[in-house]
Structure formats: structure tokens, C-alpha cells
Amino acid sequence: MRYKAIIFDMDGVLCFTDKYHYRAWKQMADKIDVYFDEKINNRLRGVSRMESLNIILKKADKEYSEQEKEQLADSKNEIYKKLLMNMTSEDFSREVRDTLDLLRSRGYKLAIGSSSKNAKLILKQVGLQDYFDKISDGTNITKSKPDPEVFLKAAEYLNVKPEECLVVEDAKAGINAACAGGFDSVGIGEASGYEKTTYSIAHFSQLANLDKLKR
Ligand code: BG6
Ligand code: MG
Predict the structure, then answer these.
(1) Mean pLDDT across the stretch 108-125?
(2) Which H, E and C letters describe 151-195, residue by residue?
(3) Residue 177: CB within 6 Å of ligand 1?
């Protein structure tokens, strides 16, 4: 086996929270009269909550203090968490579930490497919490992707070296983070075909044929 472990980004790879992030940021932006659309939302993929807010506030016509920004980020998160309560096990597809089961049965260690501070809440909500040996998320890092910290922590928790792991990501920021940490990566969605990925896939189930993936 070329790899001992697989580290999965969560949002956009295992489940699809984009629409909830969008609706929550949109409500917050409307409240302070700042323009926000789905195109700007796409740029928030993989980056931390505060960095996302800084991107959104580029459209604002005033400066916000750090304290005001904390309040805005908190208000978005409160709306987001309420929306997350709409998620069910249906938001975690059969394809993802079956592929994870298969990878586990083949002896791979599985971990989460997510920038989100809500990762554990989401995994619990969709019934995914027992699928992973370790979770590295927004609560145990000081630097967000494209910094490799979240993946380096996941590898450390799993007790494997970066070169023994494969990172699965949908965001370019995440692929850059994997590269910076010395990890091979699989790009899916927006990151599929990105020149820095080691492998690209169109469907999650292609991970079942890991040994046959072409570089
Ligand atoms: C990432 C998402 O997984 O988590 C980003 O792709 C999001 O869009 C980031 O900003 C932080 O999420 P949270 O849940 O901590 O606000
Ligand atoms: Mg993602």
C-alpha cells in the first residue's frame, strides 16, 4: 500500500455546507449593507471564518474594528449553526459512506483535516463521527489553509509521516496546504485538475481504486 492514511477535508468533500455558509454570510452582509454574492462565496472555500469575513468586508465602505469583526463573525456563526440543524444523514451520501467503509476495511487510517470550528458538530449531525480515527479542525490550529498546520496536526494525531498520507481536498487553498506540508493530494470539485494536485478525481468513489489513480 502506497499510503497508510487518508486525511479528508470536510466541507465540499464529505458533505456540502456551501449553501448554508452562503445563506448565513448573506444574512450578515445584508444587515450591514455590504454587497455579497455566490461568486464571492466561492472564494471563501477552505479559508477560516475570520479570513472569510475579511474577504467579504473588502466590499464595505467603512473600516471595522477587531471587536466589531468578532461580533460579525459570531452573528454569522449563530445563523450558520441554526441552518446546520437542517442537515440530516441524507447530506452524507451513500457513495461517500460506502467508499469510507471500503477504505477502512482495506486498513487505511482515516482522519479529518478541516478549517471549520464546527467540524465535530457537523460530523455528529450527519452521523459521520465514528468513521474517523482522528479529527484535526479549526479548534486545534492557529493558522488556516494554505498553511499546512491542520494536515500536519492530523498526521501527528494519527502517528504517521506526511509522505505516508494522502490529502483529499476540494479547495485550491487546501491543495496548496497539502503541498506545503509534503503531502500527496487528491483534488475533487474545484480542485480537480489544479496543477498542484498529485491526482484528480471527478467522483468520490474513485478513491476506492487508489492504487490505480494516475498522477
Ligand atoms: C471551511 C470552509 O471548511 O471552513 C470555509 O470551506 C469556512 O468556507 C471554514 O469559512 C471555517 O468554517 P467555520 O465553520 O469555522 O466557520
Ligand atoms: Mg473544502
Answers:
(1) 96
(2) HHHHHHHHCCCHHHEEEEECCHHHHHHHHHHCCEEEECHHHCCCC
(3) no
Residue 141: nearest ligand to its CA? 1
pLDDT attached to residue 2: 87
User: Ligand 2 centroid vs 114 CA: distance in angstroms?
Assistant: 7
Q: How long, in residues, is the chain?
A: 215
**DSSP secondary-structure letter at 148?**
T
Q: Is 105 exposed, middle or buried (0-12, 13-18, 19+ CB in 10 A)?
A: exposed
Other C-beta atoms within 10 Å of 11: how many? 23
- Domain extents for the chain? 5-15+90-212, 18-84
DSSP 4-17: SEEEE--BTTTB--
The pTM for the full model equals 0.95
Task: Return the CATH number of the domain spanning residue range 18-84.
Answer: 1.10.150.240
Half-sphere exposure of 140 (CA within 13 A, CB side): 18
Q: The CATH number of 5-15+90-212 is which of 2.40.50.100, 3.40.1440.60, 3.40.50.1000, 1.10.10.10?
A: 3.40.50.1000
Closest residue CA from atom 1 of ligand 1:
46
Q: How far is CA 48 from the centre of its chain?
A: 10
- Which tens digit of pLDDT belongs to each residue from 163-184? 999 999 999 999 999 999 999 9
